[in-house]
Every structure is written in structure tokens, then in C-alpha cells.
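Ligand: adenosine-5'-diphosphate. Inputs:
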Amino acid sequence: MTGPLLDIRDLVTEFRTEAGLLRAVKGVDLTIARGETLALVGESGSGKSVTSLSAMRLIPDRVGRIAGGEILFQGRDGRVRDLAQLDQRAMSDLRGSEIAMIFQEPMTSLNPAHRIGAQIAEAARLHEGLSAKAARARAIEMLRLVEIPEPERRAEAYPHQLSGGMRQRVMIASALVCNPSLLIADEPTTALDSTVQLQILVLLKRLQEEFRMGILFITHNLGVVAEIADRVAVMYGGRIVEDAPVDRILEAPRHPYTKGLLGSVPRTDHAARASGQRERLVQIPGSMVDPLRPPPGCDFEPRCAWSGPACRAAVPPLEATGPEGHARCIRWKEIA
Amino acid sequence: MSFSFLIRRILGAIPLLFGISLVLFTIIHLAPGGPLDVYADNPSVSPEALEQIREAFGLDRPVPVQYVLWLRSMLVGDWGLSIRTGRPVLDEILTRLGPTMQLGGISMLLSFLVAVPLGIISAARRGSRTDSTVTLAAFAGISLPVFWSALLLQLVFSVWLGWLPSAGMKSIGDGSVSDRLLHLILPVTVLSLATIASWSRYIRSGMVDVLSQDYIRTAYAKGRREGSVILRHALRNAMIPAVTVIAIDFVTIISGAVITETVFAWPGIGRLFVESMNGRDYPMLMGLMMMGSVGVVAANIIADIVYATLDPRIRHG
Ligand SMILES: Nc1ncnc2c1ncn2[C@@H]1O[C@H](COP(=O)(O)OP(=O)(O)O)[C@@H](O)[C@H]1O
Ligand SMILES: [Mg+2]
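Predicted complex:
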């Protein structure tokens, strides 16, 4: 099969709020190839979750809608479908089988009233019509795969009997049970402490190689990105402001916002941990743009050290910064 | 929740019930008037005869002594004699229990079957026109006084339209199943309306809470459709807050739907209570109220057991 696995074009997502129409995603383009990991990075409130929930079509009509753009997904059958246009029935056939998702909060994302084993095998029972017995065996196999000790016993446990790290492993197991070609992981390690974070990242990386799936990995922590990503897209105020291969982003950021994020990477190295100052952040001054009242020009301009009058005039276009990178900044050449 | 916890709950209820009985006994004896007042103006009952009755029922003893005597016989299963009818309290209660169970049981079942779907639909379509309609109807149902809706339905369907019997359990000389069912329609409707209204609100709020939980989103992400998300993932957790309310309401109705039974001349516990109240029939009132109290205490314990079945976090501590 050729062509990208997921190709999001000019996605616009809006919410109806009491204060008016809130445009949380304002024309996002993203592509993920088979077996590739794209990290979507940005501060809290930049629109990462809304982008991923749009791709999963998990935004209830009551709350908001996809107002424009295409979400092209190439299925196992080779056909390319626009998920933005798919009806809920067809979409629920893809969810859990070809596209899976894991969430930030392993504490609350599992149903407290259901056994671990049943929750892991749920998608397989649903999509593959597995019998209760086969489902149990599959659940145990998946528990083993995500390296949970005593899988037979754990399958019978309830979520409250497991630690946060264990629960996130269970979430991963339940997402991968149907061997999806795309995994969307929305800050899967953010709620975990740093040693567990690293274990989960290593596990995801191993499973990706085994399953050859594409991953959209969402994080606000650039430190995590180096561990797992092939390419990085940086998001701010509902737009992609820079994208490039991971090394290029980390070594030579072209957008002032990316630069700012790199300056605020939490220090998780041994020296920092030993001295007890684990999260010494250099925050970007100012705060996230108010999505209800965006500035007329560049969203980042009010917080930007490089800003000038031209930045306030119009939203800057996404310009090619090399063979594989783009930046949404009219002065990107000066920033290198 | 363990077996020993259950035992402790039951043992804990015993002093509670003693306390309740003491308070109830005091209150009914504080109420003005007494069981023999009905005879006071009756010329055929001589003062000597009255004195004899008073002694026979122990009414001449001080109230604390009466309480101790009542308690002592209650502990060995003797509920005493009704002052009004002279028959054993327990027999009287048991004959009235059947009609009340019939009326209450059918009403509870109907309420449950209607309130649960209403609450679910209302929650799943919150903010929609359906939701506002259900909400409005529920508040109307909760705020309408039962005696008013009972009299209104009686007026419309029995007096004006003549479709349904206005009172009693069966027609004189009839008693076929269809006749009995016809007699049930109005009282069951009245009793269910208020219950449906209140239960559907509890189910709706529990459901709204649960539907916004992260694990519901997880269920959708696995490919479940709305119906099965609600039935398999939401309903059980959404029922938890409604459990106590349902259990207590059940007992309240079984221990006497006083107004409904009175308006529809239903020969049940509720009407027995009103009759006994009017006659200041102390042993009967104590029997009825203690039965209600034991019921409420038992309902709470049952609710705890149901909680534990619904929620593994309680079950496995
Ligand atoms: N259900 C919602 N209703 C209204 N606004 C929302 C909703 N979900 C997200 N938003 C808004 O969309 C913007 C982007 O949010 P989100 O995608 O969650 O950010 P991120 O995941 O990058 O932290 C925020 O301004 C947030 O307030
Ligand atoms: Mg988020």
C-alpha cells in the first residue's frame, strides 16, 4: 500500500460555548506514514487533544463539530476514507479495530465496575466476535505482551487494584488488542512519575516495532519526544507552527515558540534528580492565546521576543524551512 | 464488603430501633386525646365499664410502665391487641398487608420500568427538547400533591367519564381478574406518578455524571455504539446514587401509601394507619410504625449490599 496512513488536511474544529463559538483547531495539516511516530507537541490548551479527538470523531455533536477539512485514513482494505464525512456507524467499526486511542488519565479511563480482562478483550469481542473463552485467553496474552506479571490473576482484577503505571499498560493492551494500524496516544505518560514514564515509552516503542503501527503521540513535554518520535509537529493556538524530523526540531528549531518550548524542557537527568530539582522549567513568558479572542496576526506574537509590526498584520503562512520542515514565522531565517 | 460487616450493620440497628420505639411511644402518648374518648359521650357505656376497659388495656398505668410492658411483650413476639377492634395487632396488619403489597409492588415495578428509560433518554439527549419535556413533566409530578392528582383522576375517569371504578379493590359481587385490574389502575397511576418523577431525576443526574466520565470515552474509542455504551458501561454506575432512594421509597409505600389508600378506599396498611390514628389505637399505631422503622433500617442495609454488588471498589475494599 502506498500513500500516507493518516492525512489530515486543513482541519477546523469548533465548540459552541456560552461565550460564543470557540475555534479550537484552525486549519491543521498532519500526515503519518505506516510505522511512523509523529509527535504533536505544544503547551496545554494549544488544541492537541481536540485534533486527536476530531480524528477519532469523539467530539459529541452536542458540544462541537468538525467545521472543515479532511481526515483521510487508509484502511486495511487499501481504501482511503474521509473520516470527517463518515457516519457514526462506519466510524465505530474503525474505532478500536483499525484506529485505537489511549488517554492521559489511566486512573479514570478504565471502567471501575469491569474486570481488567474484560476491558482488554472488549474491542476484540466487538470487532472479531470472539467468544468469552477466547476473549479471556486473548486478554491474558495481551497482559503478557505489555509485561504485566501474573497475567492470569490480573485479568480477574478490577482497575482500583492496580497502580497508575499498570493501568496505563492495561490501556495500551486494550488499545492494541485488534492490532490497529494507527494508535493515537494523548499524553499517555503525563500523569505518571518519571521512571514509570520511561518504562511506558520503551514499551510503546517495542510494540510499535512489533505491530508496525503509525503513532500520533501527543505530549507537552519535548523531553519525551526525543525518546519516541520520528517527526515532530509543534502546535500553538490551534495551528501547526512548525514541523520537522525530530533531530532537526531538537537541534535547530526555526519557530520562536519551539525554541521557547526547548528552553522549558524539564530536567530529568541524574544530576537534576540527585539535587532534588527535578522540574526546573524556564517558562515562556505570557500565557496561551485566548481562543475566543485571537490576535489578528501571528498567535504567538504577544509572547514573542522577535515580534515586529509585520507579525501583527496577518497570520503568517507555513513556509518550507528545508526539504522536510516548515515553520509558520516570517522571520524564521533569523532565528536559526 | 464482608459478611462480618453485614452482621455489624444488623447488630448496630438494634439500639437504633429501641431508640425509635421510645420516641414513637412518647409522641403518640403526648398527642391529645386517648383511645377511649369515643365512648366518653356514649350514654350506654357507664363510667365503671370505661374504668374496666382502661384497666384491661393497662391505660391506667403510668406511661413509662406502659412502655416497658409493651416492649416486654413485643420482645417475645406479642404485638398486643387493638384497642379499637380487640383483635391481635399482628393479625390486623397481616390482613391489610396483602392489598398494600399488591398496590405498592405493582406501582414500584411500573415506576422502575418507566423511570429508568426516561432518566437514560433524558441524560443521553441532555439539553434537547425531549430532555426539557421530561424535566418539566418530572418537576410537575414531584410538586403535584398526591391528594390533588388522586382526586383529579377520580373526578375525570370515574365521575365524568365513568370508565374506571372510583374506590375499593373490587366490585361487590364481582372480583374477577379484570375487575380487580380495573380497580388497580387509578391508585397505581397516582402512586407511580410521583415516584417516576423523582426516580427519573435521580437516574438522569447519575447518568449525566457517568456519561461525562473518561471511561465512557474509552468505550466509544473501542468502537462501541451509543446504545451499548449506555447499557454496558454507564447504566450500572449510574444506578448507584439512585439505590438508596429507591429502597427507601419502596419501604415508604409498602408501609402505607396513606393518602392514595384513603382517597381510593384501598383496604391496606395506609388506611389502617389513618383509622388507628383517629381512634388513638396505641398498640396498633406502635405496631405499624415499628414495622415501618424496621423496613427503613432494612432498606438501608439492603441498599448497602446492592452498592457492593454494583461497585467492586466497595466489594473488594
Ligand atoms: N468540550 C469543549 N468545549 C469547549 N471548549 C473546549 C472543549 N474541549 C477543548 N476546548 C478548548 O479547546 C482548546 C484546545 O484544547 P485542547 O485540545 O484540550 O488542548 P491541549 O490538548 O493541547 O492541552 C482550549 O482552549 C479548550 O478550552
Ligand atoms: Mg490535552
